[in-house]
Amino acid sequence: MKLFQYLIILFVFCGFVSCSDDDDSSLKNDLIKKTTAPAIVGEKIEFAYAMGAQTGKLQTAEARASIAGAQGTGFELFSYYTTRTTIQIDGVNYTAGNEVPVRSVRETNTSGAISSATMEDQIDEIYINPTVAHGKNKVDLIAATVRYAYVVPEEARGKNISFSFSSKSTTGETASYSTPEYPVSKMDMKRLIVMTSGDVCYFSIANMAAYTKEQVESLNLSDKIDFVYIHKDKLGDFNYGHSFVSLGTDSKYIATPEVIPSNWAKTKTPMEARRDNVRDAQLKGSMPAVYLDDIDFQTLNLNEAVDYTLGLNTDGGAFMKTADGKYAAYIYVNKIAAGTMTVSIKRYPL
Amino acid sequence: MKNIIISITLILLCGLSLLSCGDSPIDDNGLLITDRELCDITRFELLGPDNQTVLVSHSIDTEKATVTAVAKFGTNIKHVKPYCSVDLDAIVTPNMGEWVDFSQPRQYTVISGNREVKKTYTITVTVQGQ
């Protein structure tokens, strides 16, 4: 009976240590997934892969993705240390707390799902010993953290992806690390689309682009226009500001009715404003690390929504669903100026 | 020694049983019923789907038991969430903080802290330009 208990304990212990097979090796490794954002096709997922050799030097690092990455996938040539002082390197100023690049990889290669990095023999000593000056001396490369970026390919849309990292030292020791599976979003994203009131003001969610009236008519896109951007400070006595209206919105909410030709399809796009409280970091392009993900669109209910949203501001936006029910989208307002608005979009196929 | 421990334990249990029978009753929602008789709305708020206020102004008439509010031009008045402040220990029914259609006046009843006095408020919201 006691033997059985010992066996159970042994199995539980094995369960804890099964993620890494380098326990008997003098080469150790670890991994951090730097990217916290949802994985979107065309966007990067970044990893920091750390290696340390107790004997010999680092020789190679390898990353194997379950689905081959798109162009741009591979290891970086540089590792980074955090500077404690203000320094200037190659004309670039770094202040305390900044990450400073040092060359740690001699060459990189990506072929299919496998990316590899051949490590340098030596590295700037400050990377190993932060008390010495940058560029003063070089030492053997016995430990480094390399960065690997995976550009999500179209093939991975809506699937799960995983990665296996491995490294080898000059003494032949090896270490490896396998990640869990990460879901790839079905969303598409496009950033920084500039719209101008009365000109490039017709937005198509299906095309994720803004058009002029002439473009809409020459390309016969009127049935793909989901909203029109209008800027007018007041409509009568009331505040109007930067607003989105559908082609089929009640005319009393359209400050400049002449922007909607009478012969265009009068689609009604349900939309609901969000002011200040949906600051998606991917659309915004900066922190905080708050993100819209597939589930936000899967659970989006616009049954009670109207087909216009008035008085948008910077960092605000609007959830929408196309009238044909094909897409749900969030339009984020990056920047506003008189008569112009810069927006970014996340779009989810329904 | 054993008898002393048993005696102390019994005394503690008796003390606890006395404490547990407080004289402050609670209602069906677990809220304290007190002796307060006031039952007025003291503040009113109406939020849109983004949890931002849609109101331009509002006024409360405690004598007529009315709240009259004006919402911004373009507000989707059929999909808003009302919130209010009431006198201490009072409650409101039906619950606020739920999606409602305010295109018609709605009635909310404020019930005093002693649950014996009730006042039904009529809340009317108009939208600018309508």
Oligomer: heterodimer
- For the termini of chain A, the CA-CA separation is 56 Å
> Could you tell me the radius of gyration of chain B in angstroms?
23 Å
Overall structural domain count of chain A? 2
Structure, described:
The complex is a heterodimer of chains A (350) and B (130). In chain A, 9% of the residues lie in helices and 44% in strands. Chain A is mainly β and 350 residues long. Chain A is elongated, with a radius of gyration of 26 Å. About 3% of the residues of chain A have low confidence. With 130 residues, chain B is of the alpha+beta class. In chain B, 15% of the residues lie in helices and 35% in strands. Chain B contains one helix and seven strands; from the N terminus they run αβββββββ. In chain B, the strands form two sheets. Chain B has a five-stranded mixed β-sheet, with no helix packed on it. Chain B is elongated. The model of chain B has no long low-confidence stretch (mean pLDDT 88).
List keywords for this structure.
heterodimer, A: 350 residues, mainly beta, Immunoglobulin-like, five-stranded antiparallel β-sheet, 27 strands, B: 130 residues, alpha+beta, five-stranded mixed β-sheet, two-stranded antiparallel sheet, 1 helix
